[in-house]
Amino acid sequence: MPDTEKLALLERFAAAWNAHDIDALMECMTPDNCVFYTAAGPGERGAEFHGPEAVRTAFEAVWLKFPDAKWNNPRHFVAGDRGCSEWLFTGSSSDGKQSIAHGVDLFEFENGKIRVKDTYRKQAA
């Protein structure tokens, strides 16, 4: 898969996050062995979600927690079978608490899709 196609995939992925479109998001992920590592969680890689059902549920949980979530000004980079997206997250939780965080997602590609999404962020205290 050429880098231009991987960059276009990351653009579609970012747009799907901002549209809160779970079907479009999952279309970007590998159908059988996708993985999502969150920025925080019980393990050294955050919380881990393996397989499309678990990843889908974890992605949807972000929108439940932050109904107005946006990943602003995404910038994407690709190197071989790896990619990176930088963004500024903004959102309000259901209790009205505002959240702003700079972050990156590291990706691994497989067969024209995203196999791994690994999130890192800087969160204001």
Task: Give a quick precis of the structure.
With 125 residues, this protein is of the alpha+beta class. It has helices at 3-19, 22-28, 52-65, and strands at residues 35-37, 48-50, 70-79, 82-92, 98-110, 113-123.
Helix vs. strand class: alpha+beta
Tell me the total number of β-strands. Answer: 6
How far apart are the termini?
40 Å
For the record, the CATH architecture stands as Roll
Radius of gyration, rounded?
A: 14 Å
Q: Strand share of the residues?
A: 35-45%
What is the residue-averaged pLDDT?
94
- In one word, what is the shape? globular
CATH topology: Nuclear Transport Factor 2, Chain: A
Structural summary, described in words:
The protein is α+β, with helices and mostly antiparallel strands and 125 residues long. The chain has a single domain, classed as Nuclear Transport Factor 2, Chain: A (Roll), CATH 3.10.450. It is 30% helix and 41% strand. The protein has a 6-stranded mixed beta sheet with strand order 2-1-6-5-4-3, covered by helices on one side. A hairpin with a 2-residue loop joins strand 3 (70-79) and strand 4 (82-92). The mean pLDDT is 94.
